[in-house]
Every structure is written in structure tokens, then in C-alpha cells.
Specification:
single chain; alpha+beta; six-stranded mixed beta sheet; two-stranded antiparallel sheet; 8 strands; about 40% strand
């Protein structure tokens, strides 16, 4: 897969998330998807995203850095949002927080098969 093609697919995936266009999610996420070592499949991935948007109504994925080395994408995602209650075990309760997520995706064809994600929790803790 060509780097620019994979980058474009990834940016379309992020646009899908930001629009909460769940009907299109299967276009980007493999039926056998794995998230942080746990097989969740497409249905579990969708459930995770729906829960995230329920807990953080103003959630918006901002691609701050993107590196493509097919079949992998590495991305630094920025967030500036207001979780309704607890987030990552921290009592946020509607306070605006900014943080980053560093994530690596493995693609099989044009779909995400595996995700490794680390959220900068220390940055959130420093804001509380």
C-alpha cells in the first residue's frame, strides 16, 4: 500500500469518528480488530467509541502528527474536551482538559486490524 493512500484512508477514518458516522465504521475497521491486545472485533470497537462519545459529548479527534509506514500508521491525536464524569479513573466531572493520545495502527488491506494506544494521563492529572 502506498503511504499517501494509507494516510488518506486514516484521515477519512478520523473524519468518520468525528462525524460519528457509525454506519461507515466497518469501511475502516476490520471485523477481527484488536485494541491494546484485546480482541474486540468491529462490534466491540463501535461499542468503545459510542461509550467514549457518551462520556465525552464534545470529543473531537485532532490529528497533530501522522507517520505512515505501511502497513502501519503512527499518530499523535490531540484532545480538548469536557468529560461528563470519571475518565481514566479520574474525576473530571465536566472540567475542560487537554491531552494527547499516541497510537499505532496496523492495517490489513485498507482496514484497521490492530491498535496500540497510550493516553497521556499525567497531563490530565496535572490539570485537576
Amino acid at each position: 500500500m502506498i503511504k499517501t493512500n494509507l494516510s488518506a484512508i486514516y484521515r477519512d477514518y478520523i473524519a468518520c469518528l468525528n462525524k460519528q458516522d457509525w454506519a461507515r465504521l466497518g469501511q475502516f475497521v476490520h471485523d477481527e480488530a484488536i485494541h491494546n491486545g484485546r480482541r474486540v472485533g468491529l462490534s466491540g470497537y463501535l461499542e468503545m467509541l459510542r461509550r467514549d462519545f457518551d462520556e465525552i459529548p464534545d470529543l473531537y479527534f485532532d490529528v497533530q502528527m501522522l507517520i505512515s509506514d505501511p502497513p502501519y500508521i503512527a499518530s499523535r491525536l490531540g484532545f480538548d474536551c469536557t468529560p461528563k464524569g470519571a475518565f481514566l479513573g479520574l474525576d473530571i466531572n465536566g472540567k475542560r482538559v487537554s491531552f494527547a493520545e499516541n497510537v499505532i495502527y496496523e492495517f490489513r488491506g485498507e482496514k484497521i486490524i490492530q491498535v496500540w494506544s497510550v493516553i497521556d494521563k499525567a497531563t490530565i492529572e496535572a490539570q485537576l
